[in-house]
Structures are given as structure tokens and as C-alpha cells.
Amino acid sequence: MTTTWKHQNQLHKDSGHELLTLTANRRGKLTSVWLDPDDHRQSFLDLDLVDGSFPSLAASLPETAWDEREIHDLFGYIPLGHPDPRPLIRTPRWPKDFLPLRSAQLSPGWLEVEPDLPALQVEGDGVTIMKVGPTHAGIIESGHFVFSIIGENVLHLDAHLFQNHRGIEALLEGKTVGEVSPLVTRICAADSVSNQTNWASAVEQLAGFIPSERLLLNRIILLEAERVLSHLNDLAQIPAGVGYQVAHQRALAMKELWQRGLQSLFGHRFLFETVHPGSAVSAPADAVSEIVHAVRRHWVPWRQVVMGHHGFTNRMRGVGTTPLDQVIRMGAQGVTSRAAGKEFDARQSIPWYGEVFEGPVIRTSGDVLARFELRLDEVEASLRIIEKAARMTYKTPFQDQPFTVPEDIDGRAVAFSESPHGLNVHDVSLSQGRVSRYHVRAATYRNWPLVAQTVAGNAVADFPLINKSFELCYSCTDR
Fold first, then answer.
1. Topology of 2-116 in CATH?
2. Are 203 and 175 in contact (CB under 8 A)?
């Protein structure tokens, strides 16, 4: 069985399939779910644990390394042969018998010890250890970075996320369908619509509900509006990483303009509570077009300014390069992967995006400049998608689709979307109208390990620029 488990998962990887989730449940079972990007088919592989342990996949499939460490921390199941079995989420303050997703949810008595986890460091003459975080300057969440450096060169970076683990998956267990949305909406402000859409799609699949074309168009508008918002923020932060304040402030002004438009059209600056099972907040097509045009008036000259500044573009070129083979090996997603030449965008595998999706934007150099330019093009592509979807709502008859969630709704559904960070997946199991298991796998979770690998070999001063070019989410790991 051990050989079969490893072999089957490796076959999917070798076939170019995308790993949607690798997770466990209280009954001692592991499940991996793979997506075939060509025919959009999902494959489920199950493994029954023996004596609370399982064969690790991480040596040959490094993208599973964090998943297996998380399973160990939250369930207590042991990944045999894992190359780095250190705790990922649990800290020395957790009592040994506290397993949040396996045992009863009691408030533990935290141990009075230092909370930091052991860090991997380079040892030798001339090596200096530099620690950054977990508290940072500005309004930012917690992340602890341990650098091993010699001179100005980074030899190794050990990234410790999960500083504010909220236990959302445990909180969701036992919740009714009506109680889930407020929590799912707030897992992450940057990927909120994506998370809401995944939850709604999972419930609709299990209920046998088929959304109307107009409802799906409204969801596309919301998803792409969120992408524009996130990318505008990231495009502001990258020039901030090199002190290019004019570009930074003007991009933040565009972001504010966009958010005010979202507030006026959809009722929330971060689009919270805009997608529910069977529904989505909508806005008049002409009003949607107005905010698109308002942003474009600032966008076009801003893009010309930043791309015409050769000092800025040269500073990004060749810095923080992620080669395509490493991106594929680590299962990286979103901007990070497409900037290195990986031709995958989850919107290709979502049938209801249909003709409004133009295809993935691709760069090949895999450096900071590629990630910056790719976001530029994706903003423009998303604005066109929003306009096209809004126009199509004019031609699509309004259909009142009353949707009531069955009280005894039951089953398992794996729903995904392309969030601003990439492939975002929710693995949802319901039993008699309540959540029995809810697993969230955000794209940023897949990309954080790659950041650490990318920084090595660059200068210390390059880290802010590289980190901002990935611009990953802390909330998605602190879920």
C-alpha cells in the first residue's frame, strides 16, 4: 500500500496534474486530490493509516512537505521519512496532547516556555544570523525570517509563518451552512471573493443547484475586481521596495479609487459578503464600466512612467529568479508560476469563465521584473474581462433562482478558483447540513517555500524587493 500511495501520486505529478489538496481526517485517512488541467477531471487518492503513521511523499514531491508537517501538527499522524519533520504550526507552548483537528476542542493550558521554533541555520566562519520579525514595521501581519548571511549575500532563509494560527478549520466543524460564510469571507481580505466563491460552489455542487449564466457572470466580475485590487496593491509595493515613492504613492491612489468604486457598487471595500450559495451581489453594467474607465485614466500614464524608468526596471531585472523547473517541482501557483513560464491558470479549468477569459498571461524570465510586468498585463486583462462580463449581463435575461439549502445536505466537494495569488482550493465535507471537515489550501501556501529558496543567492538588500514581488499572504497560512 505504501508503494501504491507513492506511485499513484507521482504518476499524477509526472502527468502534469495539479495537486489540489493533501489532507487528513479524524478517522485516520489521508486523501490527495489532483486536477487534470486538460479535461478538468479530479482524481481522489485515499490512504488508510497504519498505527497513526504514513509514508511521506515530500522527498520526491516537495510541494507536499508543508501539508505533511501540518497534518502531523494538527492530527498527530506521523509522516515517515519526511526530510524536514520540524513542527510547522505548533509551537513549544502547545501541550503535547493538544491536537486541534483530532482531539476535543478544549482551551489548552499554554506552557510557559519560549515560543520560537528551531531554525535551520548555516554554520561556519564569517556567517552571520539575522532575524527579521515576527513583528514588522507598518501595517503588516506576522512572519519570522531567519537569514544566514555572509557579507551581503544570503546563504539560506528559513521562513517561519503560522505566527497567529486562528484554527479556522476547527472552528468551522459542526457549523451549519448558514454559519459558515462570515468565517470563510474573512480568512483573507486579499482572496475573500475567491474563498466565498469556493464555498458557494461546493454547496451548490452538493445540492445539485445549477447557477444561472447571469449569476456566474456576476461572480466573474467580483473575482476579477478582487484581482485588480490585489494587483494594484502589489504593483504599489514593488517600487516601494526600492524607494521609488512616486510610483508607489500613485499606485496606492489608484487602489483607493478602485476600492471606493467597489464600496459604492458592491457595498464593501474588500468585497466581503458578496457571494453566497445561490447568489452574488450585482451592480448595473454601466456603473461597472464607469469605475473601470475612472481607473484607466490614471492607469495608462502610470504604466508609461514606471516602465519608462530604466533605473527601476534594471533594478528588477535578474533579481529573485525562479526557474521553471523549480516552480513546477514546488507546485508554485499564480503570478509566481506564470512569470517563470508555467502555462497554467485555474480559470482555464472553470467552464463558466467560458469566452470571457482570454488565456493566461505568461513571462519566462522568472525574476522580479517578470512578476511586475505580468501583473501589469493581468490588471489590463481583468479590466477587459469585467467590461465584457458586464456587457453580457445586459444580454442575459434576469432569472430569479430561489435557492434553499437542503437541511440534510450531505457529501464532499472540492471547489477551486484562481485567486489573485493563484489556485485556491476548498475541500468541503458536509453531514446532515453541518460541516464535518473543511480544508482550505490557498495558493500562497504553495508559494511561501519557494520564496525562501529564491532569496538564497541574492543580496540582503534584494529581500524586500523579492518578497514584495511575490507579495504573499500571511492570513492564508494563519487560517
1. Beta Polymerase; domain 2 (3.30.460)
2. no
Over residues 348-359, the mean pLDDT reads 92
Distance CA(6)–CA(56), nearest Å, equals 8
- Which triple of cell numbers denotes residue 263? 464600496
The answer to whether 191 touches 163, Cβ cutoff 8 Å, is no
Domain at 168-470: CATH architecture: Orthogonal Bundle (1.10)
Q: Per DSSP, what are the bridge partners of residue 415? A: 426
Q: Where do the domains of the chain lie?
A: 2-116, 168-470
C-alpha to C-alpha distance for 28 and 142, rounded to whole angstroms:
32
CA-based nearest residue to 352, from 64, 40, 122: 40
Residues of the chain with pLDDT > 90, as a percent, come to: 77
- At which residue does the C-alpha cell 464535518 appear? 436
Q: Which residue has the cell 500500500?
A: 1
At residue 301, does pLDDT exceed 70?
yes
Query: What's the pLDDT tens digit per position in 358-380?
Result: 999 999 999 999 999 999 999 99
H or E element that contains 301? helix 285-307
Distance CA 447, CA 471 (A): 10
pLDDT in tens, 74-94: 999 999 999 999 999 988 888
